[in-house]
Amino acid sequence: MKMSKLIIGIVGAGKLGMTLAKLALDASYQVNIAGSKDPAKITLATSVLAPEAQPMYTRDVIEKSDIIFLALPLSKYQNIDAKWFAGKTVVDSMNYWWEIDGKTSNYYYDEQQTSSEKVQAYLTQSVVVKAFNHMGYHDLASMSHQQRVIVYAGTDEIALAKVKQLIIDFGFVPYYIGNLHATSQLQPGGVLFGANEDMIGIKKLLNK
Amino acid sequence: MKIDVDKLRFGLDTFGDVAYNDTFHTKMSYRESLQNIIKEGQLADQLGLDVIALGEHHREEYSISSPEVVLGALASTTKNIHLSTGVTVLSSDDPVRLYERFATIDGISDGRAEIILGRGSFTESFPLFGYDLKDYNDLFVEKVGLFNDLITGEHVDWESKHVQKLVNVRPYPRIEGHKLPVSIGVGGTPESVLRTAYYGYSLMLAIIAGEASRFAPYIELYKKAAEDYGTKVGAIGVHSHGIITEDDDDEAYNIGWEYIRNSMDRVGLDRGWPKMTKERYDFEVIKGAYYVGSVETVAKRIAQTISELGLDRFDLVYGTGGQLEKDRMRTIELYATKVIPRVKEILQEANENE
Fold this sequence. Notes:
Chain B: It comes from Companilactobacillus kimchii. The complex is a heterodimer of chains A (about 210) and B (about 350). Helices cover about 30% and strands about 15% of the residues of chain A.
């Protein structure tokens, strides 16, 4: 048993959001979750897919949780007021997916900035850590406790330690890759995008 | 789970992957591919398969972008097989025209038309027909509402943001004698499952990766939602890729490693995911979403999926990545004549031992 467990907030109640909620619940965390609208709209789905997670409005999830997962389409996070996230640790689990976000990838990331750096640039009063983005949601759902690696990135030591612990508690092996700029390897087109590997496999992909 | 074997339905699905010529191993022309798919559909009918479902894609590797036209050709040259799309990309289609096209297939085929609606995992059709991807979800929500009114009502009034306003409309020809059977193809979005239950439609789970058992919570959600909405629980089906050989597991494995992998890698190229690893492919073949192997191997795996999830329907996607004409035909033939009877036998045995 941990001394005191963080309260997990999940913004996004789709495939990924529900999967993360379930992983957190299985690891005995308290979980708050929000869809894009009224929490009543996700009560039914939550009751089956992530029972015991608390459906709330997005603003409440952010306020009432210690660590916030962004699990919504990349084209939607800027609809949420950045001020709501002030002082919070934010886990960016989003990916650019042209079939949802549109064909103009440059808006979401470019040569200079990864999509996570852009998320951090938007959330000026929060600390962003990238994690749980490179593995498909269906693998996340079925591959915990099988020595699979979740690669994470960021610079804030305290936030990184929290996320590392979450990765372990969710049943995965943490691998630190560097600052948010290094997440170019984790996004679409990067060598680790889609990776569902053990440590040997991850190191092989990184030529290490 | 106890399965009512006599009520099980087995389908054959294709996206219209262009096949390869047996002699020269070269890709068929679109003309040859379309004619070949008609032959395959006719074979499926002769062998007694319950339903054939054709996907709608607007990509180079596929010859079917207008599945209803192909179904029309099958309608007049087949006798019993039900004729379905899988899926119709509703968001970028016109619900009224859709009604008219399906009423036409239903008329020609004497009541054998079915439809699987979906948001589609490919979205090439959006810019092609002048739709904006950012309306992806709203378009589907509005159009499924209108389509439902069209197939359930006599005269329809409609007004919503993304769809034409209709006043007292009655499209022709009419679908007569029955209500068009509708399924929604679901890839794992909880909202889609709820919508399927809301309209009392059948649920078609597209399982293209991972273990089938991970979909059990979605089935539970579907049933619970139907109970909440007071709608009828429809048929629950799974659609997955497969290749069947008589008794050589390795031969099927190798065909899949060449063609299924190629097909997935091609899609991956667009989406920025890496090439399929041998480990991933092995996982999918052994316990995941690929039903690849000999008659006995595939029958066991299909029976397991049906029993684990309590299914009413199983659809095998054949010809993934193209494949040789003869290998496609062999999969269809073995599926219908050997695998399905064997699946029923296995499930019957399991029922008796329960």
